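Incident review: delayed structure delivery

Summary: a single-chain prediction request sat in the queue longer than the usual turnaround. Root cause was a stuck worker, restarted by the on-call engineer. No data loss occurred. The affected request and its eventual output are reproduced below so the record is complete for anyone auditing the incident later.

Affected input:
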Amino acid sequence: MKYWLIKSEPDVFGISDLRKAKREPWDGIRNYQARNFMRDGMEIGDLAIFYHSNAKPPGAVGLARVCSDAYPDPTQFDAQSKYFDPKSNPDEPRWLLRDFEFVLEFPEMVTLEALKAEKALEGMMVTQRGTRLSITPVESKHFRKVCSMAGVKVPK
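Output delivered after worker restart:
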């Protein structure tokens, strides 16, 4: 199993929205590296830390599970969508997505400040300055530490 961190702004789509929806396509990824992580690295069953970005404070708020193979993001072809990409070809889509399902919400947010202060999380991409990707891989030891800090057991 691999582990990931997925970022979303809580006023756009937060952990409570995923809890309510139960399963949701993770659309709007418009960074090639993040797309490649989804396309080439993720597998059904992988777990992800759900992270609220552009929040005060930002931080880890729960867990989600990858529950689909990668498939074309339909928003790239929708001229009314803010994620529309006029250069994307339906025969060779540029942007992909995967579906995620709700696993659990942390009892309390593990803030970015707390993540950065934890020596055991040194090297975790979200704690590094200038890392703005909305999807990043997470080492197993880091995933387990974040779960521990949140007071939850790592799901199987």
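Verification: The radius of gyration is 15 Å.
Action items: add queue-age alerting; document worker restart procedure.
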